[in-house]
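Technical annex B. To support the medicinal chemistry partners, we prepared a structural model of the target in complex with nicotinamide-adenine-dinucleotide, based solely on the information shown next.
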Amino acid sequence: MKSIEQKALFIMFGGTGDLAQRKLYPALFNLYKRGYLKENFAVIGTARRPWTDDYYHEIIENAIDGLTDDTAQAKAFASHFYYQSHNVNDTSHYQTLKDLAEKLDAKYALEGNRIYYLAMSPRFFGTICDHLKSQGILTDHGYNRVIVEKPFGHDYASAKALNDEIAQTFPEHDVFRIDHYLGKEMVQNILSVRFANSMFNAMWNNRYISNIQITLSEALGVEERAGYYETAGALRDMVQNHILQIVTLLTMNAPVSYSAEDIAREKINALKSLKVYSPKEVKENFVRGQYGASKDQIAYRDEDQVAKDSLTETFVAGKLEVNNMDFAGVPIYIRTGKRMKTKATRIDVVFKQMPTVVFDDKLKHDVLTINIDPNPGISMQLNMKKPGQGFEIETANIGYQLTDEQKAGVPEAYERLILNALRGETLNFARWDELSYSWKFLDAIREAWDAENLSDDAFPNYVCGTMGPKAADKLLAKDGNHWEYEG
Ligand code: NAD
C-alpha cells in the first residue's frame, strides 16, 4: 500500500502570530495524528521575537491543547519544531535560515521538499520571495511551494504587483493562495450536487432556477481586527474571495474532468461572464451598511481603533449577473456582514414556481439549501400534500445532514488545504486568473462607492443582531423576491 506520509520542511514566516497559533499548528497536529506527517517532517518558525526552541515548544503544546490527552504525543510532535529569530528585511538572517533548513533536511530526510508559509502581512511577501531565491534557500531537488494568506492585494493593481513579485521566485503551479472557504466540506460538495446528480444537473440553469441567494452572516463584530478592517471593509474582506469563489462554483459550466486544470478553466470562464457594473448599476445593485448599537452591543464606530466618523462597510448585499448561457437572467443575490442575527454560511437555490394549473393555490418555490456552516448538509423545500382528509398543499423539507461522527471525521479547512499543498494539489486554491477577474469586478464597485461621497450620517444603518439594512431586503423585493433565510 502506498504510504500516506508526506515528507517536508515547513518554514513558517509569522510563526509567532495569531494565525499560526490558532489555525496552522492545530492543522499540522491533526495531519500528524492522522499519519500524514510522521517522523519525516520539521517546522522552522520564524518571526522577530527572540524565542528559544524550548519556549516555542511550549507555544506549540498550548496551541494543540484540547486536540489530544496524550502528553507524550504532543511533546513528540512539538520536538519537530525549531525557532529562528529572523527579520525578513535583513538579508544576513536568510543565511542562518538556510543553514538550519539544510541541517533539518538532512536530520529528518526531507528530500529537499519545502513549504514556505507566508503567515504575515502581504507587504513582506515580495521581500521574502526575493530572498528565498537570491539567498539560495530554494532547493534544487524536491519541491518548493509557497502558501500565501489573504488578503491578496486590496485592488487589482496591488494584487497584480504582489503576484508579479511572487512570480519572480515561484511559478504559478507552486503558489497556493489560501481561501479557506474552498477547504470547507460543503463548499467542495457543490460540485458533487451539480455534477453527480442527473436531477440537479438537468435543472441547474435559467429554465428552472429563479434566483440564487448566498449568505455569509457573522454574529461577531469586528473584534480585535479593526485596524485591518478599517482599511478593508466587508466588500474586500468577504466578497472578493469567499463569496465570489462560491458564485463561481455555482455557475461554472461542467468541467471536462475533476482535475485542477479543467475545473480552473471553467471557474475562470464563469468569472469572465460576471458582469462588471457601471457606477449607475452599482447604485442599483449594491447595498452597503454599518452596524449601530443595540441594547447589548456597541456600534462599529465605538469599537477600538475605529474612527468615530468611519464610513467602512460592515455589511454588503448585492445582485450579481453571470452572463453565460445557463445563468443569464438568474439574479444571484449575495450578502455578508458582521453583527448580524446569526452566524451562518448558506446557499439557497430557489427554483421557479409551478404555474397555477392543477392546484388553485399559489405554490411556494422549491428551494435547495446548501448549509455550509454551522450544520453542514443539504435540504430541499418541496410542496407536498398536507396529510389527512381533503387536499391542501404545504411545504415540507427533506434533508441530508452530516452525523456527529461524520462531522468529527471532516478535516478543518486549514488541515485539508495544507495536505493539498503537501501533495501539490492546486484544485482548492485561487489561481491568479481567478483573482484578477474578481478584483476587476470588485474595483468597479469600490470606485463607484468612493466617488459617491457618502455623508457621515449615512451610517450606521442597521442595528446589531439584525439581518442588515432594509435596503438589502428591497434589493430582492424590486424583483418580486425575498431572502429565504431570515436568520
Ligand atoms: P499577527 O500580527 O498575529 O502575526 C504577524 C507575524 O509576523 C508575527 O509572527 C510577527 O512577529 C511577524 N512579523 C512582523 N514583522 C516581521 C518582520 N519584519 N520580520 C519577521 N517577522 C515579522 O498576524 P496574523 O493574524 O497571524 O495574520 C498573518 C497573516 O494571515 C496576515 O496576512 C493576515 O491578513 C492573514 N490572515 C489571518 C487570519 C487570522 O485569523 N489571524 C485570518 C485570515 C488571514
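Notes passed to the chemistry partners:
The longest helix spans residues 226-251.
The pocket of nicotinamide-adenine-dinucleotide is lined by residues 14-20, 47-49, 86-89, 119-122, 149-151 (CB under 6 Å).
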